[in-house]
Amino acid sequence: MPVRLVAPSRRERGLAFDTFARLLLDAAGYLPIRTRLTVSAGGALLDIRAKEKATGYPLLGEGRAPAREVGPEEIRRFFRRFQRERRQAKRLTGWVLAPGGFSRSALAWFDHLSDPARTDFRLYGPERILHLLTRAHLVRDPLDLDTVSRSHCTLPLGPRALLYMQGQLCWLQTALVNRRPALFFLLTAGGEPLPRRVAEEARRFDPSLRDKKPYDLQLREAILLRLLPLQPVDAETLAASLKEDVPALLLVLQFLHREGLLSCHRLPRRPRKRDRYALVPKFPVFLDLARQFLMGPHRFTFLASAFASQQIREGLLGYLQMRFSGRLPEQDLPEAVRLASASPAALAYALFEEPVPGTPTPTGAALTAELARRFLRDTEEPALDAVLAARGIRSILTRLTVKAAAVQEPYFAAAAESLRTLPKPVGTPAGSGTPLPPETETALELGAATTHMAEYDHAIAYLERAIKDLRDPHWLKTAWNNKGLCYFNKRRYAEAIDCFNEALKHDPMLKQAWFNKAVCLREVGDSTGSIRCAKRALEIDPHYKESRDLLQRFQQAQAAPTLPTRT
Length: 567
Known about the structure:
Elements: E1 3-6, H1 10-27, E2 30-40, E3 43-52, E4 58-66, H2 72-86, E5 93-97, H3 104-111, E6 121-124, H4 126-135, H5 142-152, E7 157-165, E8 168-177, E9 180-188, H6 196-205, E10 213-214, H7 217-227, E11 233-234, H8 235-242, H9 246-259, E12 262-265, E13 276-279, H10 283-293, H11 299-303, H12 306-323, H13 333-341, H14 344-352, H15 364-378, H16 384-391, H17 395-404, H18 438-452, H19 456-469, H20 473-489, H21 493-506, H22 511-523, H23 527-540, H24 545-555
Helix pairs in contact: 5-10, 8-9, 12-13, 13-14, 13-15, 14-15, 15-18, 17-18, 18-19, 18-20, 19-20, 20-21, 20-22, 21-22, 22-23, 23-24
């Protein structure tokens, strides 16, 4: 990958080379002492003196920025100079800096060099320069740039280069049309799109860009956001709403159409500015736009849009079914879809996240928990309300649900306080019973979460999964009591009573289970049993208000429905 210095004149390119060399020296841990620049028709020649910041050891360097690659004779000449000076300074290091690269014969000469001084003599071509800049965090890792570039342009990518222009580093990426580089766009050193005027300036100064058209990525993004409501718009109206020139906008629309993201309805015998454009309503297009928007500032706007809602409704379940095949039970897929469809972070994880090498791949409840935790990160954003409204979700209830799914995180434990109020077994440290295996703990937490969500069938399934693996009475009484609450809310009172009885087997002093059983018995018409259970709860805790209120209602012969309390 070449490194190019872009400037309006030969002299300014030389000055840019001087500044660029100082940047590289600083990134490598050297302090420049003196640089001497010579600019000729053959290019810029830079003589460098520096010292290492940590040790003070000297460095002798030569930078060459000709229009061609540096040849073996030029390296050989500088190496002889380096040998002479090294006799006086044994710690001397030598650099040859060539952003344009070295010829094959030059590299072959260096590979066969057997002089002992070779160990301290280094060639800095484009690859080594990029490695140095990446290690110093001055540019994004080139290995990540394919993913970044494809999120901004779905056309086949062509050659790439690193530019140094006006004292700034930026990436130049070309795109192929009919198998040749016909377009280009610029990204900051960190991978963000640069304005069209910067691309035009680079095109004016760099002869290799004269035959290529600049792709305005910022205008591209604005057009896509404007078309998310699924209402076709003509080019003239689009240009007026975005305050852009019609010719510049038509050029970007042409590129978007070639990418396959837009459909174009041509009107016969009408100017092109009256053509109507709309997003192609296909799931692959949704995936392309999701790559661009889900991790950026417009993630909530994208997810709340009519286009995203339509594609999530029609294609997300099938896509996740294929992507999570063998990792997520079929019955858990709808829950994964609900979490992903309401959170940019959860959706990005569901669509694109790959496991970190060397770590186990999340499956089952652990996979659902990963989606829930990412949803949780988005609950602090006010913009989430628009997404929840677009999905028909009550935001307050949903936020409580997800917080309950992550009770191991203290910051998010408030909504799950009911899980923490149970009395602890004697001898158990404050906070919990015996530590749980991760899968069991996740199932227990998701059971509590889906109970808050009123998804009682899912909650029962999670709690049953946890109960199979639980041995500690502290956790078993919690799981059985919460399972009983689910059956109560489904009006399956007999199963609820059985669950509360199981909870009481593990802890006969669990006042919440006695009260919950009392409410169930009242619902099935067993007033005597209900009063007995309510009195037992009061014996355990004479200040237990819920049980006292229930007994008073019996005394007043009132049978208003009463909701049980959580443990």
